[in-house]
Amino acid sequence: MTLVIHLQLVGALLVILGVSHAFFNRYFGWEQELAGVSLLTRRIFFVHSFFIALGVTLAGVISLFYARALLSPSALNSAVLAGMAAFWLCRLLAQIFTYDAAIWRGNRFRTWMHVVFSALWCYVTGTYGVALISAWGRR
Fold first, then answer.
1. Does the pLDDT of residue 139 top 70, yes or no?
2. Domains in the chain: boundaries
3. Contact status, residue 82 vs residue 35, Cβ threshold 8 Å
């Protein structure tokens, strides 16, 4: 598989992830979970969730439809790829160090999801990192 195809695959995965955020509220029962916090905190939570979903979706669209352009040598492309690699590296580190094992240990589905998302963040981070190195090499 070429780097362009990897970027497009990452893009498709991110679009799916971003769009799937529309179902998180119901699946995780956030309305009930957040019932005890102030209205302001509840609204901030939902607004932030929306913009995370939007950002992930848009990043996916860029990678899916503009993979070749991202790999062309330019300072802007390098900055975008560096930003994406840094963002997803931080997300990978959050997966490892922020989510306490008590959340997923002993629950097959949650353990499986922890492993799948850890692998996904490694793949996404690695793909953007390799793309960045490739773009730098062409400059």
1. no
2. 1-71, 72-138
3. no
**Rounded-to-integer distance, Cα 73 and Cα 118, Å:** 30
32, HSE (Cβ side, Cα atoms, 13 Å): 5
Owner of token pair 């780097």? 3
- Structure-block tokens of residue 107: 């629950």
Q: What is the pLDDT of residues 98-126, one digit of tens each?
A: 988 898 889 999 899 999 999 999 999 99
Asked if 81 and 28 count as a contact pair (C-beta separation under 8 A), the reply is: no
Q: Read off the tokens for 125.
A: 């981070």
Looking up tokens 């195809």, which residue turns up? Answer: 5
Give the span between the Cα atoms of 114 and 103, in whole angstroms: 10
CA end-to-end distance (rounded Å), the chain: 23
The residue type found at 133 is: I
DSSP type of residue 22: G
**Are 84 and 7 within 8 A, CB to CB?**
no
